[in-house]
Structure formats: C-alpha cells, structure tokens
Design brief:
The protein is mainly beta. It has 2 helices and 13 strands, in the order H-E-E-H-E-E-E-E-E-E-E-E-E-E-E.
Length: 260
C-alpha cells in the first residue's frame, strides 16, 4: 500500500505536468493567431499594400512605400504629384458671324500642346495647358479670304472615376475633363483689307484615358467638345466689328512624365 506522502508527490507531479501542457497549448494558439493576423490588415479603413520586408500590411499613403517600383508600376498618380504632358493635337472647328450670316469653313488642323498637371488627390487633378493650331479659323466673304492661327491657354479639372474609392492597380485609367480656355488669334488676309479677332473665352468638356507604362511614364489620350462662352468680335475693314462664335472638337495625344 502506497503511503500518503507517495500519493501526494504523484499528485503534485501531475499538477505540474498539466500546467506545462496548458502553457504549451496556449503558446501554440497565440503563435497561430499572430501568424494569421499578419496576413490580414488590422485596420480595414483606407487602401493597404503588403510590405514583403516586414511581412505585414501597411497604409498605401505611407511615404515609405510611395515610390516602390513594384507598388507604383501599375498604380495611378497620387495626391501631391506633379506631371508634364506634351504631344500633338487635332482640332475640327468653325467660326460663325451670325450678324452678317457668314459661317467660316469647317477646318481640320493639326497642332501641339504642353500641359502641367497637379493631383489634388488620386481621383482629382488640375491641369494648365498651352497649345497652338495654324490656320485654325478660315473664312471667305466675297473676294475676302482670311485665316487665323489660334493659341490657347487653358485651365481644366479632371476626375478619375476608378480612383474615387481607393487607388487601383489598373494600367488603364479613364477620366472626365472640363475647363475654360482663353483663345488668341493671329489673322492673315489675302487682300489689303485688315482683319483681327479679339481674344475669346471657350468652355470645353470631354473624356480621355491614361495608359500607365511605369511609375514615371504614361500615354494619355483625350477629346472634348468646345464652344465659345460669349461672342467675341471679329473686326474686318469695310465691314466693322461683328460678333463671332466658335465651336468644334479637339483630340490630344501625349506622353506624360512624373516630376515627383
């Protein structure tokens, strides 16, 4: 028969073993739970990006991850970035002088543009542009024939619908554009008669898309309908000043580069 002290010793040994087993199981469960949580963002609000170095999720707007080649290569521009775009442009337009029932010929002309673009957020940008078109306006009145080279300075806003919720990794990013241009004209006439056109305010609205190449470069293509916001005057010697309206469409294609 075992003594009382022997039974007490065995009881103490079993209690110690149970404590060790319980601690081991708790440690294992904590390790598994922690491992699972490293693969799921703790905070589900806002865009996230996987940090392979830290094996954890990080916020997309973190400066530490902003310029990663693998993270930026297929992502649209982010807030605070500045871009420059340059390329050719095409305009199909006409001018109309309603008071004397004269409509200029509808012409197709080629030109070019350069634009600077600042992103207020990943979904909204502001673009300032300058462009030029040779002989963009052409009109005939009897023996009088005149052409006008047009230069425009514009300010437009762009909205990227796919970026409203959070940054996406699509290489193709469509956008909507709307703005106001100031148009300036250099008129040439085929006779001794002189002619000039006052500067005009022009509104435009259209759509386009960016095709992202990498973190620095993108192709951009857009088109818009434009119309003068108010009549401006065309002055022709022998006729005097008469209001003129402008309308048409333009198409631009360019290469975009990120400054920062």
């Amino acid at each position: 028969m075992r003594s009382f002290f022997s039974m007490a010793s065995e009881s103490r040994d079993k209690g110690a073993m149970n404590k060790i087993l319980s601690g081991a199981i708790a440690s294992l469960l904590l390790t598994v739970t922690s491992f699972g949580q490293t693969n799921v963002p703790a905070d589900t609000s806002g865009p996230k990006i996987w940090d392979a170095n830290k094996q954890a999720w990080a916020r997309w707007d973190s400066a530490e991850h902003k310029n990663w080649p693998d993270a930026r290569e297929t992502l649209a521009p982010q807030a605070g970035e500045l871009y420059c775009t340059i390329g050719p442009a095409l305009v199909v337009g006409k001018g109309e002088l309603p008071d004397i029932a004269v409509r200029s010929d509808t012409v197709t002309r080629y030109g070019g543009f350069i634009a600077g673009e600042y992103f207020v957020s990943s979904a909204i940008s502001v673009q300032a542009s300058f462009g030029g078109f040779a002989d963009a306006v052409e009109a005939t009145l009897g023996s009088f024939h005149a052409t006008a080279t047009a230069f425009d300075v514009g300010l437009a806003g762009k909205l990227y619908p796919l970026q409203i919720a959070e940054p996406t990794r699509f290489r193709i990013q469509p956008y909507i554009i709307a703005g106001i241009d100031g148009a300036f004209f250099d008129v040439s006439a085929n006779t001794s008669s002189s002619a000039s056109i006052d500067p005009a305010a022009i509104g435009l609205a259209g759509a386009g898309t960016d095709i992202l190449i990498n973190s620095q470069w993108a192709l951009t293509l857009d088109g818009a309908y434009y119309h003068s916001l108010a009549n401006t005057d065309a002055k022709i010697s022998g006729v005097g000043a008469t209001p003129i309206e402008f309308s048409g469409v333009f198409v631009r294609a360019g290469m975009r580069f990120r400054f920062w």
